[in-house]
């Protein structure tokens, strides 16, 4: 595997913009406004990548549409994290044969994390002849070139070479949401947790320069963004590869000093590198949401070691307790895997007891899914599927009871929330900790912060009532 990051130069990006112009001219000659649909699977990093794909497409003259039916370009931006995620993509890809038959000039592309797996790109080559192109995340910056080659030569394009990864500044973005923005601060991952495919498909850890991130955040705030979520597979190792001598806590502090009424969130924080300095920085700045997603994966130190997580149960608990001590209102969420190869009943019970001890607001729970090429895929795994399902159900039941209890504790409190949308006859809003609140009000309130008094709760959400006028953040 190549280990050197490629920094895409302005000239290289300029050549991609020249392809955008050629594509726009191609459609102009045909007196057609072409349409494009981007379907996104997986995590926020893919959401952020899709915003770039839409940026390129818009610059090439495409109108973005909300369905594959009749679209001139369809892009499936895929996720490889679990078997089930891949099966869904193959199923939906199969269905595109019909949309393409009804609209023969449709061009279909598969990109994202699955495109980084040789077994997937080979299968596309062999068995999905109607897919016109396949490109891994490393090649996203070359999408205009890929699209142009398909349009002008009518030949299938495969840009899937195994690379350490690239950093490209200046790709246009069409953001889904003006209120909330994703900002990638780094790409890739060096951790090689034994179950995880991400380092293989997204390449080595590489940080964007601080000034590029700050410039992007300033522009967002000036344009009315109220929440910025900083993205990386392991944000706590931000800066390790830069010469600037900066770490993630320093970066957070700088973003928190940008003038304006907005909140900063981030994900994902790896417990190994989460430091007291980080928690102190979060506590210090009102603009940093008191919300932490700190995946623990397992409550058993033996399993954590087999997962190559580089922390044990005690260290994890120590860090969480410190974070809670400096941020008493901290909303804490996590990821957990049930049924890692060789996990015993006792080790599973350690996971349950950790959940009970920490009292997470909510959890993302997964059953272990073997990923080809990762060490855990070939580990001895004697636990039957039914047993893993039983453990999974038990874990969910324990967590649901905790979430319900925590949510009940909100009733009667009045909280500052960002009104962010509608859900049937209700408006939706988010607390600083990211909890969902439904309440009645006028749609003109979307985009404002409101004081909401919590009147009811369920396992998943809160019900609220509006207090008086819009409120400003106390600095
Ligand atoms: N970088 C993040 C996680 C990204 S993947 C971190 O280290 O915390 C999101 C979650 O998917 C992981 O936290 C893990 O819980 C789950 N996951 C990853 N690979 C998996 C696999 N092979 N089987 C089941 N769950 C998995
Ligand atoms: Fe995967 Fe581990 Fe990297 Fe997270 S830190 S992306 S779980 S290898
Ligand atoms: Fe999936 Fe890739 Fe994200 S594998 S979870 S889309 S980094």
Output the keywords:
475 residues, alpha/beta, Rossmann fold, pyruvate-formate lyase- activating enzyme, OB fold (Dihydrolipoamide Acetyltransferase, E2P), 3 domains, six-stranded parallel β-sheet, five-stranded mixed beta barrel, 13 helices, 21 strands, binds S-adenosyl-L-homocysteine, binds iron/sulfur cluster, binds FE3-S4 cluster
Q: How would you characterize this protein structure?
A:
The chain contains 13 helices and 21 strands. It is α/β, with parallel strands linked by helices and 475 residues long. The chain folds into three domains: 6-166, 3-Layer(aba) Sandwich (Rossmann fold), CATH 3.40.50; 177-403, pyruvate-formate lyase- activating enzyme; 414-466, Nucleic acid-binding proteins (OB fold (Dihydrolipoamide Acetyltransferase, E2P), Beta Barrel), CATH 2.40.50. A six-stranded parallel beta sheet has the order 3-2-4-5-6-7, with helices on both faces. The protein has a five-stranded mixed barrel with strand order 17-18-19-21-20. Strands 9-12-13 form a three-stranded parallel beta sheet, sandwiched between helices. β5, α4 and β6 form a beta-alpha-beta unit. α12 (345-358) packs parallel to α13 (385-408). The termini are far apart. The structure holds S-adenosyl-L-homocysteine, iron/sulfur cluster (SF4) and FE3-S4 cluster (F3S). Iron/sulfur cluster is lined by residues 189, 191-193, 196, 198-199, 233-234, 270.
């Amino acid at each position: 595997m190549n280990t050197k990051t490629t920094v895409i130069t302005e000239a290289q990006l300029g050549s991609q913009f020249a392809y955008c112009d050629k594509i726009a001219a191609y459609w102009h000659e045909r007196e057609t406004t072409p349409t494009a649909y981007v379907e996104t699977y997986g995590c926020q990093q893919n959401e952020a990548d899709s915003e770039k794909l839409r940026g390129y497409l818009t610059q090439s003259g495409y109108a973005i549409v909300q369905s594959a039916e009749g679209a001139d370009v369809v892009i499936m931006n895929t996720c490889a994290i679990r078997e089930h995620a891949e099966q869904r993509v193959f199923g939906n890809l199969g269905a595109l044969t019909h949309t393409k038959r009804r609209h023969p000039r449709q061009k279909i592309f598969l990109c994202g994390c699955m495109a980084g797996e040789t077994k997937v790109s080979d299968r596309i080559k062999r068995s999905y002849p109607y897919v016109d192109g396949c490109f891994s995340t490393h090649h996203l910056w070359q999408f205009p070139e890929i699209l142009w080659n398909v349009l002008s030569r009518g030949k299938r394009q495969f840009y899937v070479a195994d690379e350490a990864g690239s950093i490209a500044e200046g790709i246009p973005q069409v953001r889904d949401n003006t209120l909330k923005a994703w900002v990638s601060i780094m790409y890739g991952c060096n951790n090689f947790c034994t179950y995880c495919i991400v380092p293989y498909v997204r390449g080595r850890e590489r940080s964007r320069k601080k000034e590029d991130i700050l410039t992007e955040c300033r522009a967002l705030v000036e344009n009315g963004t109220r929440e910025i979520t900083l993205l990386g597979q392991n944000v706590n190792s931000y800066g390790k590869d830069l010469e600037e001598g900066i770490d993630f806590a320093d970066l957070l502090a700088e973003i928190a000093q940008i003038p304006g009424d907005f909140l900063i969130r981030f994900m994902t924080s790896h417990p190994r590198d989460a430091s007291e300095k980080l928690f102190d920085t979060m506590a210090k700045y009102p603009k940093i949401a008191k919300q932490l997603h700190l995946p623990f994966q397992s409550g058993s130190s033996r399993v954590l070691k087999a997962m190559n997580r580089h922390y044990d149960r005690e260290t994890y608990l120590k860090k969480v307790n410190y974070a809670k001590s400096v941020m008493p209102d901290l909303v804490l969420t996590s990821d957990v895997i049930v049924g890692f190869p060789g996990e015993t009943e006792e080790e599973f019970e350690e996971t349950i007891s950790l959940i009970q001890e920490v009292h997470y607001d909510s959890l993302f729970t997964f059953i272990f899914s073997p990923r080809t090429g990762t060490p855990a895929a070939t580990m001895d795994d004697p636990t039957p599927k039914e047993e893993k399902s039983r453990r999974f159900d038990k874990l969910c039941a324990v967590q649901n009871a905790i979430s319900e209890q925590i949510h009940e504790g909100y009733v009667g409190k009045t909280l500052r929330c960002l009104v962010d949308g509608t859900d049937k006859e209700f408006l939706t809003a988010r607390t600083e900790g990211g909890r969902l609140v439904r309440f009645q009000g006028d749609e003109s309130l979307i985009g404002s912060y409101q004081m909401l008094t919590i009147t009811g709760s369920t396992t998943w959400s809160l019900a609220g009532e509006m207090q008086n006028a819009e409120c400003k953040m106390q600095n």
